[in-house]
Amino acid sequence: xxxxxxxxxxxxxxxxxxxxxxxxxxxxxxxxxxxxxxxxxxxxxxxxxxxxxxxxxxxxxxxxxxxxxxxxxxxxxxxxxxxxxxxxxxxxxxxxxxxxxxxxxxxxxxxxxxxxxxxxxxxxxxxxxxxxxxxxxxxxxxxxxxxxxxxxxxxxxxxxxxxxxxxxxxxxxxxxxxxxxxxxxxxxxxxxxxxxxxxxxxxxxxxxxxxxxxxxxxxxxxxxxxxxxxxxxxxxxxxxxxxxxxxxxxxxxxxxxxxxxxxxxxxxxxxxxxxxxxxxxxxxxxxxxxxxxxxxxxxxxxxxxxxxxxxxxxxxxxxxxxxxxxxxxxxxxxxxxxxxxxxxxxxxxxxxxxxxxxxxxxxxxxxxxxxxxxxxxxxxxxxxxxxxxxxxxxxxxxxxxxxxxxxxxxxxxxxxxxxxxxxxxxxxxxxxxxxxxxxxxxxxxxxxxxxxxxxxxxxxxxxxxxxxxxxxxxxxxxxxxxxxxxxxxxxxxxxxxxxxxxxxxxxxxxxxxxxxxxxxxxxxxxxxxxxxxxxxx
Length: 537
Description:
Layout: H1 9-18, E1 22-25, E2 35-37, H2 60-73, E3 77-80, H3 93-98, E4 102-106, E5 125-130, E6 134-135, E7 137-142, E8 147-152, E9 165-169, H4 175-179, E10 187-190, H5 201-214, E11 219-223, E12 242-245, H6 247-258, E13 264-267, E14 273-274, E15 282-283, E16 303-306, E17 310-314, E18 317-321, H7 324-341, H8 347-356, E19 369-370, E20 376-377, H9 380-383, H10 390-393, E21 398-399, H11 407-414, H12 421-427, E22 433-438, E23 442-450, E24 456-463, E25 468-473, E26 476-479, E27 487-496, E28 504-512, E29 518-527
Parallel strand pairs: 3-4, 4-5, 5-16, 9-10, 10-11, 11-12, 15-19, 22-29
Antiparallel strand pairs: 1-2, 6-14, 7-8, 7-13, 8-12, 9-13, 17-18, 19-20, 21-23, 23-27, 24-26, 24-28, 25-27, 28-29
Helix pairs in contact: 1-7
């Protein structure tokens, strides 16, 4: 029962939020990701509450006790890089929000399967994980001098050899296949695309590393359909080079092996590449997806932030780690910065500023993609409103505010103390709209508060979900000095164009002042014929 951080997880996320500036750091001191490390809000003070213990258990009673302690200590922001399975919620966080404390949660690492997002109560900011513009390419040279590129964390000089090694193909690298081949001292290619739908990439990779190491291999080339398992290679470090490749590269290696009597391969040291050459951001493969099973009328996750190969403090070094746990502190840090700029803003206003200014396009102006099988254009169940943009969040123009006492009604719904809960949830003043059962026309109400120039006119731009008509009334809202109110209420009406039992489609509503402010919320709608059947296809 020590207060020390055994695994390093808590240290990693804490230093991401508020770590001081440290020069010349890199992954385990090996040169990968080298540069200056700094937390998102380095002048913040940290109060760290240990709630997770040996074996990975994070008892809810410990979490609730920590929240109570944090409230008593006067914290401004709670950052919780933890959570259970979909449908498991920590309702006690409402006590913090009622006292003006912003709460930020990791959304979970069970993606890309739909309906896996956790920590989906409306009063918290739920964070999805995205990639950043940094990669770690590793060149593999075949015996015919063909050079192919994978990804690795292969930096340890003690396991780097400039020599070619024999190449062995072991399909899925299961126990039986490895036992039937002599892999001792050789580099093993694990390539079994037929298994991709059976075993999650992270599980398959972990097993392949363990089994090839036990079999005496001196290198691993692992083919997978996802690109976000890089930090799983940490167990290879100091043992043997391990390289991730996609199926196309794996097939080229296999084709070389098939026409060569004695196939060999050489793995070069990994290098770091940062900048426009790396397509980013993308929603991480593992990032849990919506909709929320417990609250389908509350769109989750809220926003995405960097959570893949994040370099932060761990133990006596700096280490790359991935997960929504790593994405969460990025949003927590921005939440703290916004609170320092706007100390009178409520938690809902801060969350709204982050959500409504998020970006749906990458650094090249293309729509953000979501990793999966196959990769696809990201939708609100992948990344909420989009990828966080801190500079825009500081000046959002309009915000969607909620009196925290309104959330008590939702809590009462969960324990059966309130009727007409669906109508209440639909009209909760959130910066999103989610209608899971659109049969007859539905009208929802929202209110925006002007936090920009006193005199402003905003016009609504509607991007209706396919198969749905969407109208806004009034379509123009004007704020004038001396009017006595900085808030305006509007109605959004959604009507199905056809009678069909279908899946979700997505759109958005944006209020624009024609200048710097563009206030966008995502819209998710599922048309149904019978409410008790989600999808008959």
